Amino acid sequence: MKKQYLSLLVLISVVPLLGGCWNQRELTDLAFVMALGIDKGEKKKYDVTYQIVEPSNVSSGQTGGGGGAQGPPIVTYKSSGNNLTEASSNVTKQIPREIYYAHANILVISEELAREGILDILDKLERDTEFRTTTTVVIAKDNRAEDLVSTLTNLDKIPSYKFIKTLESTESLLGENIKVTIDDLLSAITSSGKEPVISGFTLMGSPEKGTSQQNINMTRSQALILADDLAVFKNGKLVGWLGQNNSRGAVWLLGRMKATNVDFDWKGKKDAVSTISNLSDTKVTFTVKNGKITANINIETIISLSEINRAFEIKNPNEIQELEKKTSVQIKKEVESSIKSVQKLKADIFGFGEKIYRQHPKLWKKIKGDWNNRFAEMDYQIKVKTYYRESGIRDNPFWSDINQ
Amino acid sequence: MEKAKISTKQLFALVVLFEMGSAILVGFPKNLKQDAWIANLLGMAEGILLFFVYYRLYLFYPNLPLTGYLQKIIGKWPGRILGFFYIVYFAYLSARVLRDFGELLSSTIYTRTPIFFLMTLLMLTIAYAIQKGFEVLARVSELFFVIVYIMAISGFILIISSGLIHLENLKPMVENGWKPIIKTSLKETLTFPFGEMVVFTMLLPYVHLSKKVKTVCISGMILSGINITIAAVINIATLGVDLFTRSSYPLLTTISKIQLLHFIERLEVLFMLYLMIGGFIKVALFYYVAVAGTASLFKFKDLRKINLPIGILILLTAMIIAPYYSEHIVEGLDIVPIYLHWPFQIILPCILLVIAFIRNHKKTAKEPAP
Amino acid sequence: MSIISKMLKKKQKQRKNDNYRQKLDPSDPGELLIHRAYQENLARIKEELGNSSDLVSKEIKIGNIHGAIVFIEGLTESKVISNFILESVMQTGEIPLGVDYYQYMLDKTVALGSTKTITNWNDLYDSLLNGDTIIFLEGYNKAISGGTAGGEKRAVSEPSQQLSIRGPRDSFTEMLRTNTALIRRRIKSPNLWTESMKIGTVTQTDIAIMYIKGIADDKIIQEVKKRLNRINMDTVLDSGYIEQLIEEQTYTSFPTTYHSERPDVVSSQLLEGRIAIVADGSPFVLTVPAIFIQFFQAPDDYYSRFDLSSALRLLRIIAFFIALVGPSLYIAGTTFHQEMIPTTLAIAIAAQRENVPFPAFFEAMIMEVTFEILREAGLRLPKSVGQAVSIVGALVIGQAAVQAGIVSPVMVIVVSITAIANFSTPVYAMAVSARLLRFVLMVLASFVGFFGIMVGLMIMVIHLCSLRSFGVPYMEPLAPFSRKNLQDVFIRYPLWAMKNRPMHISEGNMVRTGEHQKPGPPTQSNKDTSQSKKGNQQ
User: Fold this and answer.
1) What's residue C101's pLDDT?
2) Is residue B268 part of a domain?
3) pLDDT in tens, C278-312
4) How far is CA C103 from CA B356, C34, C37, C38, C100, in A?
5) Do C461 and B262 touch (CB under 8 A)?
6) Among A114, A180, B71, B150, whose CB has the most other CB atoms within 10 angstroms?
C-alpha cells in the first residue's frame, strides 16, 4: 500500500515538471524597460517609446568584451497601437528580448496626448502584474514624450534616473514640482473631490543631438531634460499649466511642501532677503455660512535665514518678527495667486472636495455633483504662521558694519 | 481518533494562524469602504459569542470530537449522516482556501504557471505534514507563529517608515449608518473567519489542559481579530478607499507600495510567501479534520491510509469549484456564507446544543446526585 | 504479497547463516573448559588462532612445575611481561611442597596489579585478545590472566575538528580507557557511572555508557541500553556505526545524535543529563539525546562572555541559513523574481551574465559541484599536495571561470559566501546536511522560484518537527515551545541566569546554579562573606 502511495506521489510531482518552467526567464532574455513614453500616434492612437537599458554599457568594465562602456547606456524602440497592449505586442517585432516592465520607473505622457485625455492608458498600467504602480508619471511639456525618453543624460547614465532624481531634488529643495505616481494619479481621478496634478518636464536644446552619445561627452549638454511647471487635469484631460510661482503655491496647498526659498524686499532693497522654509504643515478646514463654503487655510512653517543683503539686527526681536511677517506675507501671496489661477481652470487639484467629504459628509452629498463649479466660486481665508529658527553660522550680516 | 496531545500554547498558535490564514488576504468586506475594519471587529465579537456554543458542546463531551458527539446527541445513524455532511463541508472549505492561495500565486507572480501545479505543490507539503500527525502539525504551527509575527511586525514598520499611512482615508466613519455594517458583519466577517472556529470542535479533545481551552481560544480569536482589523485599517489608510475596493488582494497592494531607500521595494513576493504560512495552517486544519472525521466515521485506525485520497479529492475540488477567480470570490461572498456557513456554523450547533442540554438535563434529573 | 514474504524468508535464512559466532557454542560445556595439560591448551590456541604469527607462546618452568605463557605481541606491554612475569618466574626457586602451585603463582610470582583466574575458553580469548598475558600451569584446568594490555597508542592531542579559541586543548583518542578517564577527570563525582558492554560479534568492541546518576533520565538510559543491546552486527569500527544503528530515524539528513571529540563538550553534555556512548577505537564520543539547536552551540559559547557568544551564535544560525538557501535565492532572484532585485543591481547582474552561456540554474550547479569536488578532494589529498590544489582550485573558481565567460562574478560571490557560511556550523554533521539540502532547494528554486524554496523550507520544518531523538522532540525548546528552556537557544543567558538544566532532557536535580550568583561590585556585606569563608577553611 505504501509503495503505491509513493509512486502516486512521485507521479504527481513529476508530471507537471515535465511541462517545463513556465515563469522562468533568464536575466539575459529580458529587455528592461526603464522609461515609457506615450505620444499621440500618427497612424494609430498611440505611439509608445520604450527606453530599454543596455546592461553591459551601464556597468563598467570587467565583463567579457574588454572594459568600458562602448555604446549608449540605453536604446529606444518605438511602436504604435490603438491601445497599450497592442503597442507592446507590436514592439516585439523590433526587440530580440522579452519586454520587462518591472523596473520601469518613469512614464512620460506627451502634452498633446494629455490634452486629449489619459484615461485610456491607465487600466493596462494598473492591471499589469509586472508594471509598478509606484512608477512616476510626468508630462512632456511642449515636447514629444519620445524626445524626452530618448535623450541621453549626464551624471546619471540611465536617463530614467535623471527624471526621478531631478524630480525628487526639486520637490525636496525647491518645492515647485511633486512626484506623482500612477497610484496617486488614479486615486485623484477616481475621487470626485479631487483632480490630478502632474509635474511637467521639458527638453532644452535640440532633440536630435540629445540622442547622440556626444551629448554626454560634452560639458555643456546640447540637450537637457528639466522639470518644469505643474500640469492641471480635469476629467482626465490636461486643462492648463501652473507656472513657476503658482506651482509653488499649489504645493503649499497640497501640504507637500518640504523646503523652499522665499524672497522679499527688505528696507527698500528689492529681494534683499531669502529665507528657507523647512518643515511646514498645511491645514484646511471649512465653514459653511448661508450655503456658501469658505476654506480656512492655515499654513505653519519653520524658516531659517538663508541670505540677507541689508543691515539687520539679529538680536532684535522686532526685526525677527518683521522677518517672520514678511515671509508669511510672501507665502500668502503665492498661495493666493495659485488658488486664483486654479479656480479659473475649475479643477480642484487641492482635494478640497475630498476634505469637505471627510469633514462634512452630509454636506458633500448635496454639493458633490456640481463641485468643480462651486470650487471656482469658493471663498478662502489664508493664514500663514512662520517661526524663525536659525540663521546659519553668522549673526549680523556684514552689511550692518559697512553702514549702507 | 489519533492519540495526540497538544499543549495550550500550540492551541493558541493554531487558533491565531488559522483565523488569520486567508482572512488577512481576502477577509475585508469591501462593500463597506472605509468602515470595513469596523465590520471585522464586530465579526470578532459575534464570533466569540458563537464560540461559546461550540465550547458548551465541548464541555458536554470533552473527549469526543464533533463527529463523535453528533451520534450521541441525535442518534447513531442521523449523527453519522450529519457527521458526513460536516466532513464534506470541511473538505470543501479546505478546497476553497487552497484555491484562494492558488489564485493568489497564479495571478500575481506565477502568471504563466498552471494553477494546478502550484496547488499540488502546496497540497503535497500539507499532506506531508498530516502524514506526520496532528502533534507535528501543532509543533510546526508554533514555529510558524513566530515567523509570521516577525514578518508582520517588520512589514508594519516598513509601511510606517515609508510614510504610507494616511489616517484621514478612514474618514468619515460610519457614513451610511450602522445597519449595513451589522448586516455585513453577520454575513461576511462573522462566518469568515471567526465562525470557522467550528473546526476546533473536532480538535479540542486533543488539548492537554482542558481547563484553559476557553481562555486560550478566545484570546487567540481576539488577537487574530485585532490583527485583521489592523491590517484592514492599514490597507484603507494606505490605499485609499477606491484602490482598496478595487484590489483583489489589498494587503499585497499595500506591501507593493513600500519604497525605502530606493532599495527595499517590491516586497510582494516575500510577503506573499509569508501569507502562505497562514494558508498552510488553514488548509491543513480543514484537511486534517476531514481526514480525522472520515477515519472516525468509517472506523479507520490509521489516518495515514486515507490521507492521500482525501488530499487528492480536495485538490481536485479546488480545481473544479470555479472556472475563474471572480466567480470563486462571488461564490465565497454570496453563496457560501448563506447556504453553508450559516447552517453549519451557527444553526446546527445551536440546535445541537439545545438537544444536548435537554438530554443531559434529563439524565441528571433521572439520576439524582448521591 | 507472496513475493515479498518469500524474499523476507530468504533474508531470514541468510541471516541465520551469517550469524555464525566466533565464540564457541555454549551448549557443549565440556568443550569450554580449559584442559589440564598445558600443551593441549597451547596446541588448541595455536590451532584456533590459525597459528598467527603475532601469537607468542613460551614454555616456562617455575621451580619444579611446567607451564607456558601466551600473549599477543603488539597488544601487550613487553616491558611489563619481561619485568613482572618472566623475570619473577625465572627467579622463583623451588616451590615448597604442599603448597597449591597455582595459588603460589598468583600470590608470589606474578607481580601484576590485575590478575584473574580463567576457567573457560571464552574468557581466555577475551583476555588474550585484549592484550592480557595468559599463564597455563601443568595440571590445572584454569589459567592466570595478567593485565599487561598496552602497546602503541596515540597520545592525547589537540582537537582537530572542533576547534575553539578558548577552552581546554585535549581531545579524545582511540583508547576507551583514556577517553573515559578524560571525562572522569573533569567530573569528579561518584555519581558519574560507567557501564560497559561489548558490541560487534566479530570485532568485540568495548563500549562504555556514561551518565550522571540522578541527573540523566532513567527512562532514556534504559532506552539507550535497549537499543545498544539490540545491535547485532559483526563490525563496530567507529562510534559512527553505533550512531547509525541507534538513531530513531534513518531517512533524514539531520543528525539525531551528537558527537564530539572534546572531553569538555561531552562533560557538559553529561551535566545537562545526556548520556555518552564511548566506543573503543573511536575518538568521537556520542551523546544522546540530541536536539537541533545543540549543533549550533560551540564550546566557546560557554567560555567567553554571554553577549559576544550570543551574537556569534545568532551569526552561526544565520550562516547556516545562508549556506542552505544562498544559491537557490540567486536562482530564484535572477530567473523568477527580477522585479525584487533593486534596479541597479539587476542591471549589473544582467551585464555580467550577458556572456554566460548557461541558464542561471546550470551556472549555479556547475559552480556548486565544482566547489564540492574541490572540498572533497582537499579532504582526501595528502597534506603536502593539499595547498597546491587549493590554490589551483581558487584560481579555477575565482578567475579563470569568470574570464572564460563560463560563470558570472556574482555567482562566484554567491558560491564563496555559501561555502564560507557552511564552514561556520560547529558540528560537521549538521553542516553536511545543509550542504545536501542546498541542492534540493536549488532544484526547487529552478522550477518555481521563491515558492519552491518556501515549499522546500516548509517541508524541512515539518520534517524537523517530526523528528525525535530518544523520545525528545528534535526542535525542543522551540516546538514544543518552552520558555524556561530558552536560556541556551538563540541567546545564551549569562551563566548565573542559566539556573536549571534543560527540562526536556534531564530528570530531577534540575537546579544547576545557586541563588544570588549574579556578580556585582563589592557590597557592604563583603566583610561578612570573607569572614565566613575563613570560617569554612578552618
Assistant:
1) 78
2) no
3) 999 899 999 988 999 989 988 888 888 889 999 99
4) 87, 17, 18, 17, 5
5) no
6) A114
Nearest-CB residue to C337 (from B7, B109, B139): B109
How far does the CA of residue A16 sit from the closest CA of chain C (Å)?
Answer: 10
A83-92, C102-111, C332-341: range with lowest mean pLDDT: C102-111
Quote the pLDDT of residue C532.
46
Is the pLDDT at C315 greater than 90? The verdict is yes
The answer to whether C196 and C206 have CB atoms below 8 angstroms apart is yes
How far apart CA B140 and CA B6 sit, in angstroms, is 12
Those residues with Cβ within 8 angstroms of residue C199's Cβ, 6 or more apart along the chain or in another chain: C205, C207, C228, C231, C233, C236, C242, C279
> Residues, chain C, total?
538
Report the candidate in B156, B143, B183, B182 with the shortest Cα–Cα distance to residue B271: B156
- Hey, what's the cell of C115? 590478575
The pLDDT assigned to C145 comes to: 86
Cross-chain residue pair C350–A27, CB shorter than 8 Å: yes
**Which member of B110, B116, B305 has the closest CB to residue A23?**
B110
Task: Please tell me which residue, A291 or C222, carries the higher pLDDT value.
Answer: C222
Q: Which domain holds residue B69?
A: 8-147+172-230+285-366
Q: Is B248 inside a domain boundary?
A: no
Give the contacts of C197 (CB within 8 A, at least 6 positions apart).
C206, C207, C209, C228, C229
Calculate how close chain B gets to C112, using CA atoms only, in Å: 59
Bond preceding residue C480 cis, omega within 30 of 0: yes
Does the CB of C74 have a partner CB in chain B at under 8 Å?
Answer: no
Interface check A62 vs C, CB under 8 A? yes
Q: Is residue B279 part of a domain?
A: no
Q: Which residues of C101-119 are buried (b: 16+ CB within 10 A; e: fewer)?
A: bbebbbeebbebeebeebe
Residue listed under C-alpha cell 518643515? A279
Q: Where are the domains of chain A?
A: 25-242, 255-404
B-side interface with A, Cβ within 8 Å? 107-114, 116-117, 120-121, 124, 168, 171-172, 175, 240, 242-243, 256-257, 259, 265-266, 305, 308
B243 inside domain:
no
DSSP string of C464-482, one letter each residue? HHH-EETTEETTTTBTTB-
Contact C346 A21 (CB under 8 A): no
Assess contact for C401 and C413: CB atoms under 8 A.
Answer: no
Q: Is A204 on the interface with C (CB under 8 A)?
A: no
- Sign of the CA dihedral B126, B129, B130, B134? negative
Quote the mean pLDDT of chain A.
Answer: 82
How far apart, in whole angstroms, are the C-alpha atoms of residue C117 and residue C103? 10
Question: In total, how many domains does chain B have?
Answer: 1
- Give the Cα separation of B219 and B40 in Å (integer): 16
Cross-chain CB nearest to C462 (options B105, B136, B270): B136
Scanning every residue of chain C, which has its alpha carbon at the shortest distance from the alpha carbon of B123? C455
Which strands form C205-212's sheet, in the order they lie side by side? C192-199, C205-212, C275-279, C285-288, C258-260
A347 and A189 in contact (C-beta within 8 Å)?
Answer: no
Find the farthest-apart pair of alpha carbons in chain C and give their distance in angstroms, rounded.
104
> Where do we find the cell 583514556?
C178
- For chain B positions 98-117, those within 8 Å of chain C (CB to CB) are 105, 109-110, 113, 117
CATH class, domain A255-404, is: alpha beta
Q: In the prediction, which pLDDT does C184 show?
A: 92
Which residues 6+ apart lie within 8 Å of A288 measured at CB?
Answer: A294, A360, A363
Give CA–CA dist C69/C89, Å, rounded: 11
In angstroms, the CA A147 to CA A163 distance is 13
C396: pLDDT strictly greater than 90:
no
The position carrying cell 549608449 is A72
